[in-house]
Design a protein that fits this description.
Number of helices: 8
Shape: globular
Structural class: mainly alpha
Distance between the termini: 46 Å
Largest sheet: 2 strands, antiparallel
Strand content: under 5%
Radius of gyration: 17 Å
Length: about 220
């Protein structure tokens, strides 16, 4: 593919990401019928993941093994959390994120993959030792969760017992993020994705904006 064609492909993908998130933001922040926009949450997540995968070079067995490992780690941790409260705290998932297994939406496993991948890709732009990349990548993951938590209950993503987010949630998020970031750093697949920085920024602004502006 020529450089011009590659650039056009990237610009189209970036435009799709921005359009979907901007439409969702406007609808959730200002529309009276928020349920219409919430039904497209799974589609937006799957579409975003699909576009990220399309821009990942060398999608070999090692890459898909990394995806499978993070997905399973995320799902197992969330299943333990929702059914026992031993991880993250006491919470339940709403209907927005779609079909569930043992009270945990399948999309949450994919979300762990996406957040791990985005944070890991961002850290490839920083020339620091691998351990520092793991630590800072985990911080980026927790930062995204911090922006999501204030609106999660409002849009029926998940609900905390007593409507208070426990500090242990962020502690456990950070510990699990350390593990998934270590997997990212150690997995020998090409660490390049021109779409990743925009996706992380759009996700961050999307949830931060909802927290600031949504009624």
């Amino acid at each position: 593919m020529s450089p011009a064609a590659s650039t056009l492909r990237l610009r189209i993908a970036q435009g799709v990401i921005v359009l979907f998130h901007l439409t969702g933001f406007v609808g959730l922040a200002f529309s009276e019928d928020k349920s219409f926009y919430l039904t497209y949450t799974p589609l937006t997540l799957v579409l975003t993941l699909g576009l990220l995968a399309a821009f990942q070079p060398g999608r070999n067995l090692v890459f898909w093994l990394f995806v499978a490992q993070v997905f399973l780690l995320g799902m197992v941790a969330e299943i333990v959390g929702t059914n026992t409260g031993l991880l993250f705290g006491h919470y339940t998932y709403g209907a927005t994120l779609g079909p569930k297994y043992m009270g945990t939406p399948w999309l949450i496993g994919l979300n762990w993959v996406m957040v791990t991948y985005l944070a890991g890709m961002l850290m490839t732009y920083v020339r620091v030792p691998a351990l520092v990349r793991v630590l800072l990548g985990a911080v980026l993951m927790v930062g995204l969760d911090l922006c999501m938590e204030p609106v999660a209950g409002r849009y029926d993503f998940w609900h905390w017992t007593g409507e208070l987010v426990p500090l242990r949630n962020f502690r456990d998020w950070f510990l699990l993020a350390l593990l998934t970031q270590a997997l990212f750093v150690r997995s020998p697949f090409p660490k390049r994705n021109a779409l990743a920085p925009l996706v992380y920024l759009v996700q961050l602004l999307f949830f931060f904006g909802l927290t600031m502006l949504a009624p």
